[in-house]
């Protein structure tokens, strides 16, 4: 086994070295080896990719669709994305110049941030939120500005955004919104988005909208800020959650053609192009799979209601999630705000894995995130174990 030469130690990218690994993944790894643990830590659907989507990929392989795809995506998939966004969001994009197909929403986000940001720029990020945003922004040399939304029901209000810009607005280039939210499951009402759009336009900012969970909402409508300020919004999404395709790694980013040219260039530097048979599956999912997320929603909503009701009976406090498949619950008073200690003891003593809320940034302290994208049997057993653990405190 080779050892790195001593004269090369400490010479790697300093920006990368300064970033900690994902707290979500790190905690998941730390508890995954516990025998018999029920893991509710990751946003991993237990549902399978729909059969017609899988068959499209099989057909692609059988037809020897195995050569370099166009860098920005297969034209049929670009058109399918445009049709889907028109059909579901009433937003219009040009498939030839305003759509880039990516390796998951993560690569879409990476290409976007590295295309937009310069050293010293600031990005406002409402928290608690998916923690990957912080290191990605920092890696560009820009500064993530965390805005704790816990006092406002985990939603960034226009008034709060104005306050932040008045206090720390010098150098702000973009506002990054994730909704329905990971980890809180909160949606943004249309009126709130309209207010945010006005503030963003007034201050000449970009809006980066991560809407990866937008097909999984319960009892509310999803509105895209891209429909309100299309000239300054970069919309990111994908099929990982809506069609249970996390392992396929298929995402996309859309926006005004002038910025999409830069994002497409960065995407090409990162990955060249996306796998052919994965794109074939995505074409099928978007053209003929509108019913798939609707069926998934019914399953997830039933599980959400079961877990929310069960946790509340055990004394947990939480807002009912309106989308995605997470519950962000306040831990029992006996633990104060030490969510890491609570999650660690729950894993080792009750054999249930949840994610400490502090992994999601400011406002997450004292909470834990549970994913209900798990089987009914696992959720039932997990609630029983959590109940026994809480009663033993």
Helix/strand layout:
Elements: H1 14-17, H2 23-32, E1 38-39, H3 51-62, H4 75-89, E2 99-102, H5 104-116, E3 122-127, H6 133-139, E4 143-148, H7 158-168, E5 172-178, H8 190-202, E6 206-210, E7 233-238, E8 251-254, H9 257-271, H10 276-288, H11 291-313, E9 326-330, H12 339-350, E10 352-353, E11 355-356, E12 367-371, H13 376-391
Parallel strand pairs: 1-10, 3-4, 3-5, 5-6, 6-7
Antiparallel strand pairs: 2-8, 7-8, 9-12, 11-12
Helix pairs in contact: 3-10, 4-10, 5-9, 11-13
Keywords: Aminotransferase, Pyridoxal phosphate, Transferase
GO biological process, one term: amino acid metabolic process
Family: Belongs to the class-I pyridoxal-phosphate-dependent aminotransferase family.
Give helix and strand order, one letter per element, not per position. Answer: HHEHHEHEHEHEHEEEHHHEHEEEH
Q: Which segments are poorly predicted (pLDDT under 50) over 5 or more consecutive residues? A: none
- Mean pLDDT over all positions: 95
Major sheet: 7 strands, mixed
CATH architecture of the largest domain: 3-Layer(aba) Sandwich
First-last Cα distance:
47 Å
User: How much of the sequence is in beta strands?
Assistant: 5-15%
Number of strands: 12
CATH class of the largest domain: Alpha Beta
Spatial order of the strands forming the largest sheet: 2-8-7-6-5-3-4
Radius of gyration: 21 Å
Outline type: globular
Tally of DSSP helical segments? 13
Please estimate the helix content.
40-55%
Give the CATH superfamily of the largest domain.
Type I PLP-dependent aspartate aminotransferase-like (Major domain)
Number of domains: 2
Structural class determined from secondary elements: alpha/beta
Fill in the CATH topology of the largest domain. Aspartate Aminotransferase, domain 2
């Amino acid at each position: 086994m080779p050892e790195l030469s001593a004269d090369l130690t400490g010479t790697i990218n300093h920006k990368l070295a300064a970033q900690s690994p994902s707290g979500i993944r790190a905690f998941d790894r730390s508890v995954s080896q516990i025998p018999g643990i029920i893991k509710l830590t990751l946003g991993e659907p237990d549902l399978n990719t729909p059969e017609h989507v899988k068959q499209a990929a099989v057909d692609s392989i059988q037809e020897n669709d195995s050569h370099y795809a166009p860098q920005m995506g297969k034209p049929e998939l670009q058109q399918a994305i445009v049709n889907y966004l028109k059909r579901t969001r009433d937003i219009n994009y040009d498939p030839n110049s305003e759509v880039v197909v990516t390796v998951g929403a993560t690569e879409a986000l990476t290409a976007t941030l590295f295309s937009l940001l310069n050293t010293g720029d600031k990005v406002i990020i409402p928290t608690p939120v998916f923690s990957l945003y912080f290191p990605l922004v920092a890696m560009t040399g820009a500064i993530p500005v965390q805005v704790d939304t816990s006092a406002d029901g985990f939603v960034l209000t226009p008034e709060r955004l104005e306050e932040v810009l008045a206090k720390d607005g010098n150098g702000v280039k973009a506002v990054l919104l994730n909704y329905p939210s990971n980890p809180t499951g909160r949606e943004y009402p249309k009126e709130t988005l309209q207010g945010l759009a006005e503030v963003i336009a007034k201050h000449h900012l970009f809006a980066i909208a991560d809407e990866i969970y937008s097909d999984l909402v319960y009892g509310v409508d999803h509105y895209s800020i891209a429909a309100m300020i299309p000239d300054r919004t970069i919309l990111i999404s994908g099929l990982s959650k809506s069609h249970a395709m996390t392992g396929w790694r298929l995402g996309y980013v859309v926006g005004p053609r002038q910025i999409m040219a830069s994002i497409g260039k960065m995407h090409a530097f990162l990955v060249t192009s996306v796998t052919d048979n994965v794109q074939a599956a995505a074409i099928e999912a978007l053209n003929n799979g509108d019913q798939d997320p609707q069926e998934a929603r019914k399953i997830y909503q039933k599980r959400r209601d079961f877990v929310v009701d069960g946790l509340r009976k055990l004394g947990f406090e939480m807002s009912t999630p309106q989308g995605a498949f997470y519950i962000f619950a306040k831990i029992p008073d006996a633990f104060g705000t030490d969510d890491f200690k609570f999650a660690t003891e729950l894993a080792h003593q009750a054999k249930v894995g949840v994610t400490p809320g502090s992994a999601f940034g400011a406002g997450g302290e004292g909470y834990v995130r549970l994913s209900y994208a798990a089987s009914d049997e696992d959720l039932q057993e997990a609630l029983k174990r959590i109940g026994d653990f809480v009663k033993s405190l």
